[in-house]
Amino acid sequence: MSDVMVAGRPIQVNEEGFLTDPEQWDESVGEILASNIGIELTDAHWAAIRFARSDYVAEGATPTLRRMAQVGDVSTKEMFALFPKKPAKKMAYVAGLPKPVGCV
Amino acid sequence: MKRLLVLGSGTAGTIVVNKLHRRLPTDWEIQVVEPLAHHLYQPGLLFIPFGQKDPEELHRPTHSTLPASVDRIVASVLRVLPDDNKVELDDGTSIEYDQLVIATGTSTRPEETEGMTGPGWRTSIHDFYTFEGANALRSALQTFTEGHLVVHVCEMPIKCPVAPLEFAFLADDHFRKRGIRDQVKITYVTPLSGAFTKPVAAAHLGDMLSKRDIELESDFYVERISSSSLVSYDDRVIDFDLLVTVPINMGARFVGESGLGDELDFVKVDAGTFLADGYTNVFALGDAAGLPTSKAGSVAHFAADVFVENFLEHIQGRPMKRQFDGHANCFVESGNGKALLIDFNYQTEPLPGKYPVANIGPLSLMKETRANHWGKLAFEKLYWHVLLPGRSLPVPNEMSMAGKIPVDTNGGSSQ
Asked: Is B198 on the interface with A (CB under 8 A)?
């Protein structure tokens, strides 16, 4: 774990760059994290991110792609368009949430 | 008389009934709801397609696995009414309970993936998670002489997450022994970012794939299947001649319809005590429970030990003191008469070392050995005679770090 400067303040991240405390996140941090992985955030991205963050608070876990589709109303096709290749992981990274637990 | 009602007598349900039957106070009775007349040894399904297992040997009558004094109701569950402490059955009757254990497992749902059950189903598209599927695949595999075999996982979680990898290893071995390995291309297709979910094991199992010339296609989330190709949500196409897929795994439908489930109809429970969210007399055990650990018989067994001790306190109105640690261990059959063993829990990923006795073994963790293969085969007898009857296995219940060698890793790769 280490601190990195994001949006002018220190943010704690793990070895893969995921925030370790979702409370340290705000939208300006999200913008910078997105640009780190080459994503420009649109309204559709923000809708997905906001659902994921509120769902995390309610459920204690980062939503899976299936949950994003069934409960968050963001289809899997759309998730792949918004966050290419690794949508669940990239969304969690930008939203300041833990990497989805690899279902074991 | 107070009633414990257990839904399902698969691995978890049977172990719990056998353990509690001996220990519940005399003013408690146990009833079990189970529609199937036979109990299936599920780890044996993997070997049927390769002709290494006589399919008829895998079943025992359900009644022979349960205590004679336990009342078994042959029916399926329509729904649970948890606020009324009642379960409705498909024969039109209902049963009231004081405490409920849901142990109805998980099953494959091929119809959930577009095109899977189309014209290719059981001709070019196969599964081995059902008895019928494993037998159909046996014929398909024996007559397969050349082309592209794709071993595929639709979505996590699945029961026994190492099984599709084992299938790929055994398929490699099968074609080598037939002398046609060079005419068969094998690809392993997974929605995960690597061969497995946990970094050290993913790297190790990934190496085992590449050593066998099995290609790995990762982060592949299937959108639809035709009789000769898989198409992902990001428009990757993989053509196959023979597909061995693990369809989406879901819990029993009644779980969702009773308001107790997550998106996949697994019961939402506390990961330490298995108590269903919002209730004090509804538990879920085994694959039916939405736990962040593997869906596997070993988990059901370790979890049952914790559950039984807690449950005996719980019904006396005392706090449940024990917490499940997510302990799982799995033999991974790797072909050529060898297997490896992995042992892990919620916090600790599979590591190399010796098991169950530190530095001695006799089993080796994360390493292919003949002893592990014999361990896997011997396990079938233990399953029927020790595990299901709820007797103690000579292994620690909680995962232990003794004998394990920590590995440096920069984390890795899951979905």
From this structure: yes
